[in-house]
């Protein structure tokens, strides 16, 4: 059977439309729409580096917006960093990854903008991380804070 390229494209488009209609009737899986501090810290670091290397102000603006969101919505009233936000509800005390990745993002943001407030925020978070996560007996950082949810044993990532 010989058909032209245009006829083939038309047939494929018709088939795709039929498939879409059928797929749209199926149950849609739930979406994970949480905002995580650790992932945002990684994103902030990447955007700040990209802004510096590519000299693109849009990346720095995006990094700054993410940073503003974290410090507005993911800090408890007592100043403690939280792990996640969903539908305006911030909860769960941050873990070591949240602190480490956000600190890294803030340092990259400082190195790109030279705005000292980012470095100050990073230093404050580092002091808090040492206070709640440092193992005073054996050294190293625990993954969970000493005042967080009770667990059988506190893990230390290598």
Give a description of the structure.
This protein has 158 residues and is mainly alpha-helical. The chain has a domain at 35-133. Helices cover 58% and strands 8% of the residues. The chain has five helices and three strands. A hairpin with a 2-residue loop joins β2 (82-86) and β3 (89-93). The model has no long low-confidence stretch (mean pLDDT 92).
Keywords for this structure?
158 residues; mainly alpha; 3-stranded antiparallel β-sheet; 58% helix; elongated
Principal-axis shape: elongated
Specify the helix fraction band. 55-70%
Work out the strand percent.
5-15%
Q: In angstroms, what separates the terminal alpha carbons?
A: 62 Å
The overall strand count is 3
Biggest sheet strand order reads 1-2-3
Q: Give the count of helical stretches.
A: 5
Radius of gyration (CA) equals 23 Å
H/E series, N to C? HEHHEEHH
The residue ranges in which pLDDT falls below 50 over 5 or more consecutive positions are none
Spell out the blueprint of helices and strands.
Layout lengths: L4 H21 L9 E2 H18 L2 H17 L8 E5 L2 E5 L2 H18 L2 H18 L25
Antiparallel strand pairs: 1-2, 2-3
Short description:
The protein is mostly helical and 158 residues long. The protein has helices at residues 5-25, 37-54, 57-73, 96-113, 116-133; strands at residues 35-36, 82-86, 89-93.
């Amino acid at each position: 059977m010989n058909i032209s390229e245009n006829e083939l494209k038309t047939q494929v488009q018709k088939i795709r439309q039929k498939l879409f209609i059928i797929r749209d009737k199926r149950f849609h899986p739930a979406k994970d729409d949480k905002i995580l501090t650790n992932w945002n810290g990684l994103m902030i670091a990447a955007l700040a580096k990209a802004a510096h290397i590519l000299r693109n102000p849009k990346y720095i603006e995006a990094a700054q917006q993410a940073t503003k969101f974290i410090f507005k919505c993911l800090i408890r009233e007592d100043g403690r960093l939280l792990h996640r936000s969903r539908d305006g509800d911030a909860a769960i005390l941050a873990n070591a990854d949240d602190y480490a990745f956000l600190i890294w993002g803030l340092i990259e943001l400082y190195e790109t903008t030279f705005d000292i407030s980012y470095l100050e925020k990073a230093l404050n978070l580092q002091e808090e991380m040492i206070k709640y996560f440092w193992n005073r007996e054996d050294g190293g950082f625990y993954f969970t804070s000493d005042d967080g949810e009770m667990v059988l044993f506190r893990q230390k990532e290598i």
